[in-house]
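Comment thread on ticket #2218

A.B. wrote:
> Attaching the input chain for the structure job we discussed in standup.
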Amino acid sequence: MNRMTEMIYVYAGFLLTAAVIYFLLIFPTQWLKVERIRCNQHLGIKVLQISDLHVEKLRIRPGRISRVIHEEQPDYLVLTGDFTRKSMHLNKVRRYAEAIGSHGIPAFAVLGNHDHRLRREELQELVEILEQAGIRVLCNESVNTGSFYIVGIDDYDSNKSRVSKAFRHVTDRTKPVVVLTHDPNLVLAMKRKYTYLMAGHFHGMQFNIPFLFRFIDKGPLAASGIYKGLHTGAGGMFYISRGIGQAGPNARFLICSEVNVHEL
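C.D. wrote:
> Ran it. Output below, let me know if you need it in another format.
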């Protein structure tokens, strides 16, 4: 085998390796899946959930998210935390918030553990960015929509959850309650009943490797094997989104980016 042939084989091997890495690790962060959940709670509403944007590493453009919202025409938009952990990316959060909030659809958000790593004034700026875009941030508080309550509980992992405070104005026990939070480990600590709960935080494992959460501490829920999808707990039914962005390595393995359409 001459030197030219050897170089061709080496180059071909390099290209093949790069292609495999791209399709296994990078492509899942660029392909946005719309995951549909039909869970009849007799509310007659469609809710589009976006979780874990992590805008500093997000490869899904604002326009793509906006098109999904336009196509789905949900009754409500909810964002379940982790927008960014660094103030230098707040302007990028603004671009995504404006794209999401531009549809005139009632939109609500809660904060995640990465958001709480911002300094106090930076966190306040994040909240202002979201609310200026038409996305109401619920920090341990509730909204009465008329036919049901939306309860936003702050991040459990950051020790910011105040369940009693969040439910303080939930006075009509006959009305359904939809809970928004970031860390689903909250369901193990909550003593209040709810109709449906939406969370994120685990990224569906992000790297779908069996038993990974036995070695990476994401709390007891993940360690027990509950880290994505629809489940029933002591308080009610809850859904854990795989999320749209990445934390840590900017890659996913056998788990694609997703937004969630809940038909309740």
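A.B. wrote:
> Thanks. Noting for the ticket: Residues 191 and 235 are 7 Å apart (CA to CA).
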